[in-house]
Design a protein that fits this description.
The chain is α+β, with helices and mostly antiparallel strands. It has two domains: 4-62 and 97-193, no CATH class; 206-586, Peptidase S8/S53 domain (Rossmann fold), CATH 3.40.50.200. The protein is built from 18 helices and 27 strands. Strands 12, 13, 14, 15, 17, 19, 20 and 23 form an eight-stranded mixed beta sheet that branches. Strand 24 (479-483) and strand 25 (486-492) form a beta hairpin. The structure holds 2-acetamido-2-deoxy-beta-D-glucopyranose (2 copies).
Length: 594
């Protein structure tokens, strides 16, 4: 991250040239579209005081995005000669990023040139400019303005203050369209921050209060799911992470944090019989005291017990920058991190139809950047099954529908007290994107599903040419989690499945690194080329439109890929074998010099 202190000067110089007042472009406020929906879920504290800080994030138009995309596919495809030839972050910056001159010109145009007639405003841009930073890839500029300055700079009438119920953290947003000079608008393709919709607040995890006691029969092997069960089911019982450079992470959004006390108790209850770390190795952001969140407790406990003895990061986005879009902030932070964690398990999703397509497109480029660096990004597929819009169409979740990430769905043991076969669970987010086309890597297997499923929903409920999700699935219910020093049973959600798959992939990375081979990176092309390495799940279905007289179910699991369980459940030994074979075939010698 770089501070742009020289900027005020630039603005002042151009003012001396007395440039003509420039036409302004109107930039839409995404928040405006969501004002009503957002204000129902958030406390609106009224008009923002003039000295509050409003954050704006500008996505500079990147260079060579087509080349980046080509590299992304090549380094991820086991059949490409470039498989595993990942780029360094500096190479990414060089490929897509802009230079210092471009950034300064953008900020000068944004804040300076159009204020030449007005001494006061020139002064203002000088003050404001010192608060802008650019990420190390040189493709995102983040500016902090006082509300007073932002109103004048962008011709905004009013900012509102919002607060998440039960929290003290404030978010500043405006419903106004931004008016920015056309020459500056031509240099960017996205503006976020104070014009973004507020982050999703709905709690994804739930606690299922179903009483096990009533149904317990003979031969009970386990009540609820805990590490020993998960480790046995996916055949990692005897695995231990060993490579010092291996790493995994659970980024957290919206004030979810963990407590060491919870981890300590979790290890006492569920940490026997395998080597594991006692503590998180690296915390990003300031994790406050107070109550821990169930999501953060679950994520840390299950990624550390599945990816046991692997260096674990806890990436606490809300502690880094207030008021922004925590998800975007995480990606920007990731682009600034020279040695980021190799496997990242995120429980974050939103309705695809509520997210600005420009934003999704831009974020896809961030996903490509991560994949091109050899990072694996996993997302929970969502907990509403196929979803439902107005009772007549399914509602896909994003970023589950991004073709550039791996999406993890939810399953359940068919016999809940046995460690055996699983079935698709009704909450499991799955379906087809209404925005993104089906990527090459899944075409054959998805076509096979569409051609053979006997229980397809009505045609107008989904778009069968869209990206199908999830890609893989793991057990999602009856988890034991220690939260605020209390063992809580029945924790349920695909955000439980996601860290489990992350830990398993992190073990594969461990073997790769120990053999001096590159990490997995974006893993979908490898998985879809080796479906036999994954345990197929052929039963179950996900929820659809509950109230519909036509259809209350989404899709049905069946042999092969399906939009409930993807390719199926992980099985460590077989996945390890195909991952090692693929890497060894290309990389007798690694790293290559590039
Ligand atoms: C994985 O473990 C199960 C038992 O849980 C076993 O039946 C299966 O053969 C194992 N798979 C492999 C590939 O080792
Ligand atoms: C745990 O991982 C570290 C490297 O991070 C390694 O040095 C150590 O030997 C591992 N422990 C075991 C029991 O394998």
């Amino acid at each position: 991250m770089r501070f742009l202190a020289a900027l005020g000067l630039l603005a002042l110089n151009s003012s001396a040239e007395k440039l003509a007042f420039e036409e302004r472009a109107t930039w839409k406020s995404h928040f405006k579209q969501h004002f009503n929906e957002n204000t129902k879920l958030w406390d609106n504290l009224g008009t923002a005081p003039l000295d509050e800080t409003a954050v704006f994030i500008f996505g500079l138009k990147q260079k060579n995005v087509e080349i980046l995309e080509r590299v992304f596919w090549q380094v991820s495809d086991p059949d490409s000669s470039q498989y595993g030839n990942f780029l360094k972050n500096s190479q990414i910056s060089k490929l897509v990023g802009r230079d210092k001159h471009f950034v300064e010109l953008f900020l000068a145009r944004l804040s300076g040139e159009n204020f030449v007639e007005d001494e006061e405003k020139v002064y203002l841009s000088q003050q404001s400019a010192s608060k802008c930073t650019v990420n190390s890839n040189m493709d995102w500029v983040t500016c902090e303005f006082s509300v007073r300055d932002a109103m004048r700079l962008f011709d905004i009438q009013k900012f509102h203050v919002f607060r998440k119920p039960g929290s003290t953290r404030k978010y500043i947003r405006t419903t106004s369209y931004l008016k920015i000079p056309q020459s500056a608008a031509a240099m960017i393709d996205y503006i976020g921050g104070a014009v973004s919709k507020l982050p999703s607040v709905h709690q994804k995890l739930s606690i299922d209060r179903e009483d096990f006691g009533k149904t317990i029969k003979e031969n009970v092997r386990h009540i609820g799911n805990y590490p020993e069960v998960i480790r046995a089911r996916y055949n990692i019982s005897s695995e231990t992470g060993r490579h010092p450079d291996n790493s995994q992470c659970t980024p957290q959004f919206l004030e979810q944090y963990y407590h060491q006390g919870d981890l300590d108790l979790f290890w006492r209850l569920y940490g026997k019989g395998y080597e594991h770390r006692q503590e998180i190795d690296k915390v990003v952001g300031d994790v406050p005291g107070g109550l821990s969140g169930i999501e953060a407790s679950l994520d840390t406990q299950y990624i550390m017990s599945t990816g046991n003895n692997i260096t674990t990061w806890f990436w606490y986005t809300a502690g880094r920058h207030e008021q922004q879009e925590p998800f975007l902030q995480w990606l920007i932070d990731l682009s600034n991190e020279e040695n980021p964690p190799l496997v990242n398990s995120a429980s974050y999703s939103d309705k695809e139809n509520s997210v600005d397509p420009d934003y999704m497109k831009r974020i896809n480029v961030e996903f490509m950047k991560a994949g091109a660096r050899g990072l694996t990004l996993l997302f929970a597929s969502g907990d509403d099954g196929a979803g439902c819009q107005e009772n007549k169409r399914f509602e896909p979740q994003w970023p589950s529908t991004s073709p550039y990430v791996t999406t993890v769905g939810g399953t359940a043991f068919i016999h809940p007290f046995d460690i055996g076969e699983e079935e698709g669970y009704d909450i499991s987010g799955g379906g087809f994107s209404d925005v993104f086309e089906m990527p090459e890597y899944q075409k054959e297997l998805v076509a096979s599903f569409l051609g053979t499923s006997e229980k397809l929903p009505p045609d107008d409920y989904y778009r069968p040419t869209g990206r199908g999700y999830p890609d893989i699935a793991a057990v999602s219910n009856h988890y034991w989690v220690v939260n605020n020093r209390v063992p809580v049973p029945g924790v349920l959600g695909t955000s439980a499945s996601c860290p489990v798959v992350a830990g398993i992939l992190a073990h594969i990375n461990d073997y790769r690194l120990r053999s001096n081979l590159p990490p997995l990176g974006f893993v979908n092309p490898l998985l879809y080329k080796n479906p036999d390495a994954i345990t197929d799940v052929t039963q179950g279905y996900n929820a659809g439109c509950d109230l519909s007289e036509y259809y209350d179910r989404g899709f049905y699991a069946q042999k092969g890929w399906d939009p409930v369980t993807g390719l199926g459940n992980p099985n460590f030994p077989t996945m390890l074998k195909v991952a090692m074979d693929a890497a060894l075939k290309k990389h007798a010698k690694y790293p290559v010099d590039n």
